Amino acid sequence: MCQILLHTHLHYDQSRKLFKVQARILQENEEKVVVEDSFQPKSSPEVDGSGSDREPPDGSSSSGIERWVIKLEQSINILLTDSVIKILDTLYHDRDYARFFVLETIARVPYFAFMSVLHMYESFGWWRRADYLKVHFAESWNEMHHLLIMEELGGNAWWFDRFLSQHIAVFYYFMAAFMYLLSPRMAYHFSECVEHHAFETYDKFINAKGEDLKKLPASKVAIKYYTEGDMYLFDEFQTSRAPNTRRPVIDNLYDVFVNIRDDEAEHCKTMKACQTPGNLRSPHSGFDNAFEDDAGCILPDTSCEGIVDCIKKSVTRDTSSVN
Ligand SMILES: [Fe+2]
Ligand SMILES: [Fe+2]
User: Fold this and answer.
1) Per-residue pLDDT tens over the stretch 99-120
2) What residues pack around ion ligand 2 (CB closer than 5 A)?
3) What span, in angstroms and rounded, lies between the C-alpha atoms of 173 and 167?
4) Do 142 and 111 form a contact (C-beta atoms < 8 A)?
5) How many CB atoms lie within 10 A of CB 82?
6) Region 214-225 average pLDDT
7) Nearest CA among 137, 149, 114 for reference residue 236
8) What pTM did the predictor assign?
9) Distance from the CA of 155 to the center of ligand 1, in angstroms?
10) How far does residue 28's CA lie from ligand 1's centre (Å)?
11) Ordered domains of the chain (ranges, CATH)
12) Hey, is 5 helix, strand or coil?
């Protein structure tokens, strides 16, 4: 056990050194870095429709059960998201900003649910996950700005759209919280599906209306959020890149939508990373805040990742003790 901890610590120290060197190089070239990195929704099987399809680490009988459970969780998620997408396609095929307003109202909700459950676990004294709380708050902050942009563009003008989106959001909150209690892996996969849909929706819109959008002025909220003030929270939700490596240039409405789309790609990657327990690190952890460099988000071996994981572990523990 000590060897494993020592190895993990050494590995993490090396990663931090590499991370710092890489970040320093990127900061020196900061003005050149304005392009999104290689998120490929169509070519990447990891985010292609079915979302991530993780294989269990070993070939034991428990891994067979786990594989079956993962398939079941992902099938339910895909069925649910496809059903909601069909309804939205029917209602909003000719009203883009209203559709985006509804999507963004719903988009923040799972992050509220994850934070609620994590706070509850912390209140019970079960475990602490500082990085998860920080990153999920930064994700909700980013989605809130998408929502403010859509409101500025008039997406919330109709009473029906506000009524529908807010009622879906309340239902979705309780569903996401229950799913997160049951299986964080399933809840994160569901969010990955939703973020993937958001990416595709904005991508199609940009391809269809790009030339018109280039002639329209940028949203004031977008200029403030993407280019002014403290960018800590903007960097915080992008867990697959070092801080200060993405600084958008916002000249017109096209730039606004390109950056919203790219944000959705970052959410997608973060949600995928979360499906592996203990995998998520704040981009700022171990970078400029040494006091946050603790084992706060590493679970002890005896803990469970939700109710499904607790049942699986108790079943496999019983089986191994019988053998
Ligand atoms: Fe969004
Ligand atoms: Fe999103």
Assistant:
1) 999 999 998 999 999 999 999 9
2) 107, 195, 198, 264, 267
3) 10
4) no
5) 12
6) 97
7) 137
8) 0.76
9) 14
10) 30
11) 57-315 (1.20.1260.140)
12) helix
